[in-house]
């Protein structure tokens, strides 16, 4: 495996006089390539049809001359102002009915055919011009699909496209009425033309209606991206990448990823801890300058899956960012730790965002490797250290993990549509299970719901999976792998109805969910073997063997052979004892890691990462705060 | 008194093949009638003017054949999709100016004349067809008026109707300007046509303007309902019912109820505890699976009043619901306790919602008496037990309670418009007083503000009554009953002005509210006799005798003869000692009940209900959690 | 210095029969003048063009005859309803795109040329009629500019005016693109006509765009006010005043004040404590009925500066108000204390709001000096006491304070646009520093950012000043005064970019902010000399002397000569020790005041004010709660 450092660079932001010096300093730092171009449409095409490639030609050549390649971004996340004169109706519309206007970025609706055509046009021009450039490392399509809540649009364009999508999916309006249960509140439609988008209803809309809209909206992202990949493949052999943003679940990354060669994501550990993680204040305080110890690894493992083994960090936080509610500075060493953690999880490249802090516009408070005055920012030395270290390391392949976690975007939509308990969130549940596995020292693979063969893993978790796909059902039925389903697994049909026979309806497991309870904060169901259920508890009926019970004797986990069903949302203590017990049964060794320490095994090495703000001693090794250690397995 | 069980049933949701079996099982359970039809307009009239009564004929006949009657709902809460093509402007508009669209229910504006006419048409057709059917037990008009905040609409139809209403009420624009005090901020109008709805103003609109809009909006509900009752009475002798929803105060239930024969309400104790009750986290945790011990009884007593003695529970929660922030399961026994509590308060019928859990659409996570697979859900056995028990009980009449509480919807509007302290809420105040009475073991009648004769009660509370109606003033002046007014009682004219002479201006009581204070959470005014005022404190002037004082010697309650005025919002401890003292003075025996226990006296029996999650012993009797006990008085 | 009492009076609210008695009672109370007229447009001009001055003539004459002068308000804050028929597009539009309608007050957009012309017309008529009236004391323009968030408007009128303003400021669109850094996300414009208002963008708009809009919006207030002052000066020699509202920072009061003769503000200590002060619950509880001990003084000192020495309290809270979340009553004595505190800070007049509590409309729960029934409210006696006391006091001039604080409206906009930490607020920072100075017993002057001469003060604080103006830079460079800059001081250019060389770039101080951290609640950076930084911490580089360090040895305050730079937001303990040390260095004596006590020095006296709810003893004097004491210096 090839390990590289990259950096995000915006030549259009800086005087051309300093480009060569920038390139030289990049090379000196050990940076292999720069991502450029992804927000520069207004400089590529200042007026409709008037193209200006000169500056970009020179920028690419300057970098290339210094030995720095380019990852070239298509600029479609930032249509220029003139685009709106050509397509006044291209804007997305929010759920309150307000157009989301020009003046920042991502101001377009995925369903607007005219804008998709404009994207094809500019991408064609770029691909023709740069598709064979020797400095070209890869293409990035657009930027952070779905960021700023942009997947869903309630525009007229989206409504028209949704009706077409529905007509294709259901073929007859009677089928749609039946599948959605529209009889329920006299919601029957006489034609597809009567169907609106599911916003601004008096009370909640039919969840089947919303689910269809969510599937449609995800499909529109896939279509939008594919319009670009089709063009790029025609003119270039460079690999295609998109940079996903952390904890964006509004579209199916597995589906977008299928059209790309490499998955990448934008890793902002401190920003994410501040703005998108459920955690106690104590947890957030303990990891204030390090980030959550499992959030990055989760995404690394997810995108390794999405990229079918090939993945990058396209944007790596180097210092304080500008966009979280609070923006502290990383502990010294974290810019190195984060990079090494990515490599340990199999990343081929880690690219810092950004080369030099921009003194202007929206992100002027976002740190770079250089300060705005071109002096080194603290992360520059850490990046250089990583570059030296990876030069010394042998290339390795990631090891297959003993444990896998199924991650499914449709389930995220389902439980957002119908949480049933206000704090039930699919990503949160998946991350909680993942965290439980990591605390036991395990490496984890994250796999798609359509996975048909579970034999590579000894133990597979599939919590909260809305619908069990046929292939996965057969893999479970094969019975070769220990599988832990539940809670809520297989509790809905694809049309968002409760299946009859009742859930979980798992092969060979005689158990039925008789009723479910969501629990407010503070309410718990203690378990006999330790820990408790919080958030969620299911009352089970059936003859399956009870392997864990509540303190008052009700089933908490049942099993048949290698198939387990979990009747609630386990807290950390419950997960701890369950993971130990299940791993023991599956023949997997576990560790009891100190707070803040995490492990990751590659084919040849075991890596340890200390996310704590204090030194941690483990198996005789003391690891400093923000410290990384590795040794042969 | 006749006691019956009912159930809510939706034949249109199920294959016709299972209707007969459903009916048989209902009868076997002891269910006397099913409420049907209230959301089925799209199946009664699939296209405008094309009526399909066949399925409904057969459903009613099938139930009737099994000995199960029907309460037939008019389907006007769910106009079909085609209705919007006929009346595109029929939608309500929210306070932000957004139409509240199709896709759920209650998508209509009460003021839209065209839609009212459509309702008259469909109700006429139903009444003509089923008005004399032998299985018909009663009619339900529409469903849960005001649910989902639907009483107020800011539509063009509402604005036009409001102007007419104002013209009728004030006759001249000068009178309106004077009555509202429009001189205040140059808000004078030159004609009724200049008056808008009181939304989207820069800062708060004139409270007199809002109060008029609130009175108008309530009147529109009365008018809407009356359009249906006029039709139904022409074609049917069955009693007319509406099912009110818990803690809906946006329209005057006394006024709607005057056009009906029976009041009913929809009782969801766990949902209400979760989503519409102010309480400490400890209180909510203690009653998580039982519901608040006073919320149901309050509504029972309220609707006994609204129904002039005749009232039902139309929808009784049988298990977890789907719509509250969190949805736990009831303790075993609660589905029985809730039913018995309703009967003890005088209900003629309790109807569980719903027969079978629907696997589709919005309420698929709402439990029924049956699971979606037709297996019994836990409440089925409890319902059957209640059926057996009521068969064994003698019929009884409810007893007149010794204490009454005045409940007035206009006051709820008034203090919502002008809380003066952010947490001052009329319903909350009324429930607090009610709870204080219940904790002393008292049965309570809830009475209308227009009540002209207080002699049936020994003690009457009238807290927070915006305006004292003339009849009630005379009843107080009569001096035969101990009356406790205040805080805020009679502090506004009907036109939302401070009356001069100043409040409370009660007959024979020389006291004036010199100034008022609202108090943030944590701020209190301790009382000399125990407890404290919270939320609200009034400085009193005058010669009336001080019967309770603050710890620093200011009047807390003054009296003259049997008339008392309370100068603040008493906390639980203050209410406890005040209720004991006042009852002693009025010759009413009180009890000191353990936490969670509540009593209710009928003509012949005393009932005890244990809302606690643990056994409670009282007067030598141990009552299990969720337990009900009764014995002859 | 002349000290007077005034009162706000609305003759149009009351029967003409009682005006003379009102005037007599005012005079008896010792009230020198009444402010009238500012909301009475609908009575001055009931129909467009039909003027009715009779009542106002008689009201002014009646007051004058009793020896009570008038401050005459222009009625432009409440355009009558007919104005909207003439100018339907005159309404402001909120950031969500909704017109802010008729029905309360301040329903106009500052940028609407037609409405400005109407204002000129009515003000001309008033000025011609009353400009030489012997009873005229002063003119008030409009009322509380900016109250109810009315400075910013997103109307079509505002957009058109903004484009003109931009064209004037930048002259070329290329310059605007460069100055704003529009290259950043392809935000380049081809013409001024393409620029929209910075609302409803997908994610945050360019801060330079928002900053320009904020400067423009402030300028529009200045222009609007100037349209009136130009008219008034033409017809009257009476001084011109505006009544600013507390903690309104959306427009530049220094700029509006430059066109006026006297600054005044509306002081509602209890309302402000409840609705617009960050403080712990304990602090808010301790000062519930007194108000924050520094909030009033801060505004007194600010408006003394804005008024170039001449300032009033135009509206003084006399009892509970109606508009805060909670509205308690002042402690007995506070209506006197607040007035005396204003006089001690140099006020020429304190005017109570209002004479008699209005029983109708929006403010009916707002106390006055009289109750609605004309009986005295508690504050009347306190006002009369103040009148007697000021008659006995010698006239004095305010003393120059030893310490000054720079206050800059543009900085308030800057950190609102880009807080970087969610709780970073400029006013809060300024008030925190001010509080630290006051706790040390100091009198403070508040000065404009353009101040060119710092020699009058021994010590000047300039925290959080977005951009250091040239004059102030030169004054600092002069080095005669101890100046404390930071945090964030001079960290942006006027076009909202990070300057290079990097901040703070202060004359003679070799230090650079290497990176900044915002800190969530609870996170702190402890300091070696005591206290800690919260909210904000800057990493400093450079050779400047470290005079305060963090507990782990990083620079917390650096200095060169008399210039200090503070690297964070000090908590109360840190401010305490820093103020003591800096004052010692600057030769200023400090005190260690007990909780709740505050001092203020005039030329001849030292005043002490006890804001605590209990007696306070200091230097042998016991001061009662709400007590005021003074003695010669
Ligand atoms: Zn990014
Ligand atoms: Zn219901
Ligand atoms: Zn005011």
Automatic annotation (TrEMBL), chains A, B, C:
Record GO terms (molecular function): beta-galactosidase activity; metal ion binding
Known catalytic reactions: Hydrolysis of terminal non-reducing beta-D-galactose residues in beta-D-galactosides
Coiled-coil features, chain-numbered ranges: none
Root EC class: hydrolase
EC id: 3.2.1.23
GO terms, biological process: carbohydrate metabolic process
Active site: 144, 315
Highest taxon in the source lineage: Bacteria
Residues annotated as domain Beta-galactosidase trimerisation: 401-588
PANTHER family: BETA-GALACTOSIDASE GANA, BETA-GALACTOSIDASE YESZ
Name this protein carries in UniProt: Beta-galactosidase
Provenance organism: Halovulum marinum
Biological classification of the source: Bacteria, Pseudomonadati, Pseudomonadota, Alphaproteobacteria, Rhodobacterales
């Amino acid at each position: 495996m090839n390990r590289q450092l990259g950096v995000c660079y915006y030549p259009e932001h800086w005087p051309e006089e300093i480009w060569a010096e920038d390139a030289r300093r990049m090379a000196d730092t050990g940076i292999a390539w720069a991502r450029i171009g992804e927000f520069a449409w207004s400089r590529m095409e200042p007026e409709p049809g008037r193209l200006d490639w000169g500056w970009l030609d020179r920028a690419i050549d300057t970098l290339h001359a210094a030995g720095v390649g380019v990852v070239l971004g298509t600029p479609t996340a930032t249509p220029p102002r003139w685009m709106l004169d050509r397509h006044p109706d291209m804007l997305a519309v929010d759920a309150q009915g307000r157009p989301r206007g020009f003046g920042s970025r991502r101001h377009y609706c995925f369903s607007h055919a005219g804008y998709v055509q404009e994207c094809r046009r500019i991408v064609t021009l770029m691909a023709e011009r740069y598709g064979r450039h020797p400095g070209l490392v890869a293409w990035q399509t657009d930027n952070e699909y779905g960021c700023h809540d942009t997947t869903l649009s309630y525009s007229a364009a989206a409504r028209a496209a949704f009706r077409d999508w529905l007509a294709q999916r259901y073929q007859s309006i009677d089928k749609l009425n039946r599948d959605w249960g529209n009889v329920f509140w006299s919601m029957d439609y006489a034609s597809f033309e009567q169907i609106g988008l599911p916003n601004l209803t008096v009370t909640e809309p039919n969840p089947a209606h919303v689910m269809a809209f969510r599937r449609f909206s995800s499909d529109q992202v896939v279509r939008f991206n594919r319009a670009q990949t089709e063009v790029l493949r025609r003119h270039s052999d460079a690999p295609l990448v998109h940079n996903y943003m952390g904890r964006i679940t509004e579209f199916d990354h597995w589906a977008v990823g299928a059209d790309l060669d490499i998955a990448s994501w934008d890793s902002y550990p401190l920003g994410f801890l501040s703005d998108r993680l459920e955690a106690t204040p104590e947890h957030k305080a303990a990891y204030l300058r390090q980030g959550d110890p499992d959030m990055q690894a989760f995404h690394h493992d997810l995108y390794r899956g999405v990229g079918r083994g090939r993945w990058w960090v396209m944007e790596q936080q180097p210092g304080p960012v500008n966009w979280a509610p609070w923006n502290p500075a990383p502990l010294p060493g974290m810019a190195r730790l984060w990079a090494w953690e990515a490599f340990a999880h199999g990343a081929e490249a880690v690219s810092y965002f950004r080369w030099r802090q921009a003194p202007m516009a929206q992100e002027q408070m976002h740190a770079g490797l250089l300060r705005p005055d071109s002096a080194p920012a603290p992360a520059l030395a850490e990046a250089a250290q990583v570059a030296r270290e990876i030069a010394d390391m042998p290339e390795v392949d990631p090891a297959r993990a003993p444990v896998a976690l199924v991650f499914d975007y449709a389930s995220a939509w389902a439980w957002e549509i119908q949480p049933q308990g206000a704090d039930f969130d699919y990503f949160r549940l998946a991350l909680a299970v993942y965290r439980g596995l990591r605390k036991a020292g395990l490496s984890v693979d994250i796999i798609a719901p359509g996975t048909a063969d579970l034999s590579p893993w000894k133990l597979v978790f599939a919590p909260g999976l809305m619908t069990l796909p046929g292939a996965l059902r057969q893999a479970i039925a094969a019975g070769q792998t220990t599988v832990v389903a539940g809670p809520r697994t297989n509790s809905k049909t694809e049309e968002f109805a409760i299946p009859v026979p009742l859930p979980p309806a798992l092969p060979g497991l005689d158990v039925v969910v008789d009723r479910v309870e969501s629990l407010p904060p503070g309410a718990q169901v203690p378990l006999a073997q330790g820990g408790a259920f919080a958030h969620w508890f299911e009352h089970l009926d059936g003859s399956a063997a009870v392997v864990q019970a509540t303190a008052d004797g009700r089933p908490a986990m049942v099993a048949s052979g290698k198939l387990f069903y979990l009747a609630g949302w386990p807290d950390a203590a419950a997960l701890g004892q369950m993971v130990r017990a299940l791993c023991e049964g599956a023949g997997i060794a576990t560790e009891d890691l100190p707070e803040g320490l995490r492990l990751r095994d590659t084919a040849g090495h075991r890596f340890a990462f200390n996310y704590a703000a204090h030194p941690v001693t483990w198996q005789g090794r003391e690891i400093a705060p923000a410290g990384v250690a590795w040794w042969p397995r």
